[in-house]
Amino acid sequence: MSIIKFKKKEYQVVTSCEHNSINIDRANKQITCRDCEVVLDPFDAIMGYSDALDDWAKRLDKYAEDTKRDFARNQIVARRLENKKRTKCHHCDQMTEIKIKEPTLWETHAEIQGNNNV
Where are the alpha helices (DSSP H) in 35-99? Predict the structure, then answer.
């Protein structure tokens, strides 16, 4: 009679937890997920947080760039609106201020949208 040896099959546990909150145990040098309590590989956990930090830095840079662009556009719109407050008098040929109503939010938005190529 022959003996058949079976290999032990290992199963990988699939979890839907993204391990967004961790607990760092300095005494045992372990990192565990606070939600599912799985012991995590320290290197993978740190790399995950590092990648997330890089993504936030890119978002912040894009936001700063968009803010600078919007500020420049608003300056151009403000200059154009200020120029519209003056006109040349047909009688004395001098520049005079005229009273106009302040633009509404919709009018300002339309002016910005109309000057996207600036």
Answer: 42-83
